[in-house]
């Protein structure tokens, strides 16, 4: 028996008959309004998405600390790494010119320092779990939060890091 909930060719023909023509039945785009992909690329939408990602990452971190079966707050030390991770790259972008020959070395040093900070943020909960300061489940929640937070920080620099009219430098 044919399922009537799915549109068939007969339904499409009925829709064309309703409209009185065989024109394209695609949704109408209003002039002056951005289409859906263009509307998703606005700075406001990016900022809202990044703040949502940060909130989700912090939620995982707090769950790793505050759930009654874990109830230890040692993993909150990774908050220092969240604050420290963008600092070397921000300093490097302020100090060097893009035309300077030393800019590559300075930016590479900043990326190296940032990588060290990020690896430390992932290593600290593992060290805490191996030392039996926290449970392995809390470690997994903190590592999940780290992944989300650092992806959010990377997304922030990818979206707002260019030198255009809407960049992080004006904040």
TrEMBL record:
Domain of life from the UniProt record: Eukaryota
Protein family membership: Belongs to the OB-RGRP/VPS55 family.
Membrane-spanning intervals of the chain: 47-70, 76-96, 108-128, 134-160
GO molecular function: identical protein binding
Name of the protein this chain belongs to: Leptin receptor overlapping transcript-like 1
UniProtKB keywords: Membrane, Transmembrane, Transmembrane helix
Signal peptide per UniProt: none
Keyword Transmembrane found: yes
Presence of the UniProt keyword Ubl conjugation in the record: no
GO cellular component: endosome; membrane
Protein localization: Membrane
Job description of the protein: Negatively regulates growth hormone (GH) receptor cell surface expression in liver. May play a role in liver resistance to GH during periods of reduced nutrient availability.
Entry membrane topology: Multi-pass membrane protein
One of the protein's GO biological processes: late endosome to vacuole transport via multivesicular body sorting pathway
